[in-house]
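Before the break, one more example. Copy the sequence into your notebook; we will annotate it together after we see the structure.
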Amino acid sequence: MVTKSIPNLFTLSNLFMGMIAIMLAMTGRYSLASIMIIVAMLMDGLDGRVARALNAQSDFGKELDSLSDVISFGVAPALIMYIISFQNIQPGLAWTVTAIFPMCGALRLARFNVQSGIPGYFIGLPIPAAGGVVATLALFHNNIRAPYFIVTMLLLSYLMVSSVKYPNFKKVGIPKKAIAYAPVVIIVAIIVAVFFPEQISKLVFIPLVLYAGYGLKQNFDRLLRRNKHDDEEADKVFRSK
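Here is what the structure looks like once it is written out:
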């Protein structure tokens, strides 16, 4: 029974980090708030792997994971961005964009829970990646103006509910013996992140943006293929006349 609960502890740690991120953002400690989102991503990546290693997967754990993700990667990053960058723009626009992001994240998670996916792929941008981009992007507020943040958040919101296929790295398992070392890895990661919060956040930002951008490229390539196919069909019709 205790073994079955271990993956849920990682999931709850994910939720805990999301709540800490919200509180840190509200007190103006933005770099640490972003770090908490990154640590939550680490927890989220471990809970499923630990569950598979211990053969402790359950519907309860799946639902708990989704509820935690909405807070840690939907609400928390949107709030961080709102507090840092949206305070001086038109309130209605700021509130709407801030609310749309976690709403699309919730839709993405609900779809994931009820639809069978494609082996090796996610359908739509996973909410941890989208939330990680928003939380780390907010740290560039001194160099980037609010309108660009708004466009980015709306684009990420669209990618979450889109049908774009993203590679699924969660299926990469970990040996059962390695689970005992997971807390050590997490503690070391947190210590390093606390001492170098802004540097680590901006470093993590790069691979997250590349992953999110993969979906944009897929969309663009699919649009080109569709246009090419339509042109070929039109050409066939023209030649047959």
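The helical segments are 2-26, 30-53, 59-85, 91-114, 127-137, 146-161, 182-195, 197-240. The two ends are 72 Å apart (CA to CA). Try to locate both features in your own notes.
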